[in-house]
């Protein structure tokens, strides 16, 4: 076993770990990379029979290495760190976090040492589960080292499959299925264009296959035949009907509100004057809404009484922020996705679900849930459309108390966004078991994924 040992406490942790292994008879060599080495840990390691080596000996040592322990840098890494290259065939176990990962943001240096496993001490660091850090952390295990009482409140929470029931607060909100179709929610879907008819169909199929009561669709004439063919459950909504219905719900008419409980807007949508007009009507409707893809282009920053979830990927987030006067590039977002998602949540007064290697769901007050279980295969065309339909169903099936505080409402939306991301990720994992993953494979797996997670 070879350990890469840095000059700080992370190096000390690596030496103590290797000392314990050396005592069990494992042949351990510590490559000392810093100008100094944690003195007590080095003494313990030497006493246990470990050997030390210099950086120049590393290539030879790696030829006969079953496991590399990476303890060069932990939370103390500063920008500009340069790390040795490790051949891909050598399994790497990182102490606390892979060397070169920023513990708070997930930013990595170009020479970051990718780990197969990371053993993190005391608490899960945000940088392990978001951005580029998430891609190099491998399997993560958090070890309790008795710090719990002294740790500050977490700045973000990781949501997992078993949390879905809690996130959806099903006991109080979800109606008994099968009684009445409106009780399982009515969703309006405004999506599609002659250029992107499939996006609307994917979102619609996702919505109905997660147990929606009724789907009303607002799609261009050219998309309508494909929609009724692929999603016979959907009921088209003419523009006159739409205007009348939205006027009803603006006056808080109970019947109108019942007819469309939530909206899903954007998959395949084009930026046209007519679409902008419809979008403005939906924005004014005050029914909760998920906005994706083409709809994001048409949104403006600022407060809006409508409860909203926006679901950008990094490029769309950059455009949203630019409209709000915040100039960032793709690299800035990759280096600190939580920070920029929060900026957008504030600028647009909504919940942001930022898609990426991990999904970040965040409210304007900073309440943040991270879903990092997604398979990389989910970055497939149409996968976002499926997520939009699924989130629409979750919104339509949730009853939001009329007198909910702004903060509670935003937290509820964040919980729903994370629940959607978890179901989506689980569907992706199920579909990936069958081989390559297309959006249609994802759709097929959706009912089973929803059932597995208690929907
Ligand atoms: N702080 C705590 O409460 C605990 C810390 N622990 C361990 O301590 C680690 C943090 O220890 P440290 O604060 O000593 O930090 P690190 O051990 O991560 O690294 C700090 C050392 O690396 C050097 N360094 C950092 N960036 C550099 C760069 N770009 N170029 C050259 N040198 C650079 C610093 O000068 C310093 O000597 C954690 O990751 C964890 O492994 C744990 O043992 C548990 C408790």
Q: What percent strand?
A: 5-15%
- The neighbouring-strand order within the major sheet is 8-17-16-15-14-13-12-9-10-11
Major sheet details: 10 strands, mixed
Mean pLDDT value: 91
Please indicate the count of domains: 2
How far do the termini sit from each other?
Answer: 46 Å
Ligands bound here? Answer: ligand NAX
Total number of helical segments?
18
Give the low-pLDDT segments.
Answer: 251-257
Task: Outline the structure in words.
The protein has 18 helices and 17 strands. With 455 residues, the chain is of the alpha/beta class. It has two domains: 2-154, Rossmann fold (3-Layer(aba) Sandwich), CATH 3.40.50.10260; 161-452, Ribokinase (UDP-N-acetylmuramoyl-L-alanine:D-glutamate ligase), CATH 3.40.1190. The strands form two sheets. Strands 8-17-16-15-14-13-12-9-10-11 form a ten-stranded mixed β-sheet, sandwiched between helices. A hairpin with a 5-residue loop joins β16 (359-362) and β17 (368-371). α7 packs across α16 (383-396) and α17 (406-433) crosses α18 (439-452). The radius of gyration is 25 Å and the shape is elongated. It starts with a strand and ends with a helix. It binds ligand NAX. Ligand NAX binds next to α1. Keywords: ATP-binding, Isomerase, Lyase, Metal-binding, Multifunctional enzyme, NAD, NADP, Nucleotide-binding, Potassium. It catalyses: (6R)-NADHX = (6S)-NADHX; (6S)-NADHX + ADP = AMP + phosphate + NADH + H(+); (6S)-NADPHX + ADP = AMP + phosphate + NADPH + H(+); (6R)-NADPHX = (6S)-NADPHX. Its cofactor is Mg(2+); K(+). Residues 165-453 form the YjeF C-terminal domain.
């Amino acid at each position: 076993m070879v350990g890469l040992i840095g000059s700080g406490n992370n190096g000390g942790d690596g030496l103590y770990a290797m000392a314990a292994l050396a005592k069990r008879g494992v042949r351990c060599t510590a490559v000392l990379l810093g100008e100094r080495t944690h003195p007590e840990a080095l003494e313990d390691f030497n006493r246990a029979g470990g050997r030390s080596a210099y950086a120049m000996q590393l290539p030879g040592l790696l030829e006969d290495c079953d496991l590399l322990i990476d303890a060069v840098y932990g939370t103390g890494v500063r920008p500009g760190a340069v790390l040795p290259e490790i051949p891909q065939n050598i399994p790497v176990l990182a102490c606390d976090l892979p060397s070169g990962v920023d513990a708070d943001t997930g930013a990595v240096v170009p020479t970051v040492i990718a780990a197969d496993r990371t053993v993190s001490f005391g608490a899960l660091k945000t940088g392990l589960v978001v951005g580029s850090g998430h891609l190099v952390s491998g399997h993560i295990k958090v070890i309790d080292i008795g710090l719990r009482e002294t740790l500050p409140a977490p700045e973000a929470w990781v949501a997992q499959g078993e949390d879905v029931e809690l996130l959806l607060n099903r006991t109080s909100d979800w109606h008994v299925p099968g009684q009445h179709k409106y009780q399982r929610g009515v969703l309006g879907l405004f999506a599609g264009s002659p250029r992107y008819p499939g996006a609307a169909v994917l979102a619609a199929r996702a919505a109905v296959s997660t147990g929606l009561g009724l789907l009303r669709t607002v799609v261009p004439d050219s998309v309508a035949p494909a929609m009724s063919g692929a999603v016979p459950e959907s009921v088209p909504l003419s523009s006159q009907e739409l205007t009348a219905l939205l006027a009803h719900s603006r006056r808080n008419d109970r019947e109108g509100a019942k007819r469309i409980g939530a909206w899903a807007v954007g998959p395949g949508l084009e930026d046209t004057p007519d679409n902008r007009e419809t979008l403005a009507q939906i924005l004014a409707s005050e029914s909760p809404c998920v906005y994706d893809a083409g709809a994001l282009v048409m949104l403006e920053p600022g407060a809006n009484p409508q409860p909203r979830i926006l679901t950008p990927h990094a490029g769309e987030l950059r455009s949203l922020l630019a409209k709000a006067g915040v100039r960032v590039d793709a690299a800035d977002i990759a280096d600190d996705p939580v920070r920029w998602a929060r900026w957008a949540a504030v600028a647009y007064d909504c919940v942001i679900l930022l898609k990426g290697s991990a999904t970040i769901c965040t409210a304007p007050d900073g309440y943040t849930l991270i879903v990092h279980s997604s398979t990389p295969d989910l970055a497939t065309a149409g996968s976002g459309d499926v997520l939009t339909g699924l989130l629409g169903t979750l919104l339509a099936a949730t009853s939001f108390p009329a007198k909910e505080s702004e903060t509670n409402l935003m937290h509820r939306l964040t919980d729903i966004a994370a629940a959607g991301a978890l179901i989506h990720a689980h569907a992706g994992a199920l579909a990936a078991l069958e081989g390559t993953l297309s959006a249609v494979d994802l759709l097929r797996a959706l009912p089973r994924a929803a059932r597995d997670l208690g929907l």
